[in-house]
Amino acid sequence: MRRRIVAMFAAIVFILGVSGCALASNAVYDELSGIDASWCPWRFAADTPASFTTDHVDGSPRLDLSAYSMPGYQSVSFASRGQAAIMISGWWVPGATAAAPAVVVAHGFGRCKHDPEVLLPAAMLHRAGFSVLLIDMRNHGDSTVDDGRFALGNKEYRDVLGACDWLRTVQGLAADRIGL
Q1: pLDDT, mean of residues 93-118
Q2: CA dist list (Å): 38 to 44, 111, 168, 179
Q3: What does the buried/exposed string (b/e) look like for 74-95 if buried means 16 or more CB atoms within 10 Å of the residue's CB?
Q4: What is the average pLDDT across 11-25?
């Protein structure tokens, strides 16, 4: 009888421990993976490939980035690979020649294509002769918000593959002419 009580007590402690870990994990996931999709486009609303600046909140001077202007951009959208309901917003900036290779420029967590930290590297690539496709991944910027969460690349990779599909089908680029 005593062994039975000890086993039941151990089972209850185990179940409570596992449940507690699951609840704590879920709370951490909710806190860390949530994205405010409106923050980046709102904060950098005026920034486009044609005109962008640095925006330092610490009072340091803005840099003159006019030499990196990409005025020939166009807004595009396409489906995430295998997920027609997820529409990816992008800016296509053709290179100097029709044969120029293209680079897909993607942002990080909580950022978007309007962010100067995304626009400047894209502009550097463009100045070097590349076409660039800047994208807002799902739940970010102007793209579809499906669950408002960052999946650490477990879903976002489809958005990048959708960009590659768009470059191949719409722009006619061979796979070996596309970089990420």
Answers
A1: 92
A2: 10, 10, 30, 28
A3: eebebbbbebeebbbbbbbbbb
A4: 68
